[in-house]
Amino acid sequence: MKVNGITDIFFDLDHTLWDFDRNSALTFDKIFKLNEIDLKIEDFLFHYEPINLNYWKLYREERIDKKSLRFGRLNDAFLAIGKQINEDLIFKLSEDYITYLTTYNFLFENTIEVLAYLKKHYSLHIITNGFEEVQHKKLLKSNINGFFNTVTNSEMVGVKKPNPKIFNYALEKANAKAETSVMVGDSYEADILGAKNIGMDVVFFSNNGDNKTGVKQVNKLIELKEYL
């Protein structure tokens, strides 16, 4: 069922439009080869991915800073897999990861088609907790920057989703109103609950089959056409 009265759509970037897991895996494969680390990428990612999600949760809750996130997620993953890596190399890997991450820019299926369709009817925007310098490159190198009227990231505002300040900042920057805006994102806590708490409509993007009751949900981006 189409949602009426909407003028603005706000998207999360990572895990919603930009295929973070795929691009991240390719980046780790590259930097491990560059730094001559003999490790099966599948084994590393098995430990790294849940550790990374937990570190992002801590970062979102203002319990750690950017430097701690970048070092800690790698250090903990190597410890979990039983691989001895010295601190200097972990710092180098953390820098290499950021340097090479935007070498790969795979998007989720139908991203370009859906954005082109929505752009004809709505003003489109980004709200992201990602690091400013990296997110800007992702948008440019994946050729989707031109679809968005505004981009708001947490480093601009000093707080992260689901803090209402970042949503209110994004709305003001976009000259939009909460009651005529929709937030589309993959994080139920950060995107969906955060947006709902300030009166925005929401669409939960669940590409991994995670079902939530009481909210509009899509498993593929093309399904946004059912609502918007």
UniProtKB/TrEMBL annotation:
Cross-referenced Gene3D superfamilies: HAD superfamily/HAD-like (3.40.50.1000), Putative phosphatase, domain 2 (1.10.150.240)
Q: Name one GO molecular function term.
A: 5'-nucleotidase activity
Checking InterPro entries in the record gives:
HAD-like_sf, HAD-SF_hydro_IA, HAD-SF_hydro_IA_YjjG/PynA, HAD_sf, PGP-like_dom2, Pyrimidine_5'-ntase_YjjG
Classify the source by domain of life: Bacteria
This chain belongs to the protein called: Noncanonical pyrimidine nucleotidase, YjjG family
Native source organism of the sequence: Seonamhaeicola maritimus
